[in-house]
Amino acid sequence: MIQLEGITKSFGSLQVLKGIDLMIEKGEVVSIVGPSGAGKTTLLQIMGTLDKPDAGRIVIEGTEVNRLREKELSAFRNKHIGFVFQFHQLLPEFTALENVMIPALIQGVSAGEARRQALEMLEFLGLKERSGHKPAELSGGEKQRVAVARALINRPAVVLADEPSGSLDTRNKEELHRLFFDLRDRLGQTFVIVTHDEGLAQQTDRTIHIVDGKILSDSSQDSSQNSSLDSTQDATSAPTLDSAE
């Protein structure tokens, strides 16, 4: 699904990523963890084609995306990649329905069809009755679910999430985490999630630990090192998640 080879990235004299090699399979839920400043968000942005590496190769669904021209890259991103951020980034002047429609409209879907697809996605996420509400009228958890619906409307192959539950209370955080796994099981999406939430990281199929711009461990390949890391983090069992409303 996603293959990164030799990814480096610097900002001025600061080298943030130092030769990242990473492969993510279709249908995986992968967490990326590490201390602040380790390069997690920069890696996610490069993976999502929002930023370009200084060197290296990025292949997503068989397409070497760093060879695409800007217009081609934008179209590829809108079709194949969905994004969920810590702060929902919904447009305040638009309703939940209108916010979800935007990626479909950008892709060239007719307004009527985009509306139908958006309503279907909101209903799937339990938000049909809130479709006419603007972000200011929604709870924090509802806003994030609208953001997830927006990320999914074009049925992207991969969803990239950057601290998606960082601004939520415990209940809404647990519901959002459960939602990611439900979506993977029901729709087949691949999820890559940057998180500081140890409970979420413990539930994912793989945990990629980044320190100082390098991959320190990958739980699917280096279980002994990952276990050592877990023991230093006061690991606890993952919370039991309630079903989403």
TrEMBL record:
Residues 217-245 are annotated as: Disordered. GO terms for molecular function: ATP binding; ATP hydrolysis activity. The keyword Methyltransferase does not apply. InterPro entries: AAA+_ATPase, ABC_transporter-like_ATP-bd, ABC_transporter-like_CS, MacB-like_ATP-bd, P-loop_NTPase. Residues 217-234 have a biased composition (Low complexity). Residues 235-245 have a biased composition (Polar residues). SMART domains: AAA. Keywords: ATP-binding, Cell membrane, Membrane, Nucleotide-binding, Translocase, Transport. Residues 2-237 form the ABC transporter domain. Belongs to the ABC transporter superfamily. This is ABC transporter ATP-binding protein.
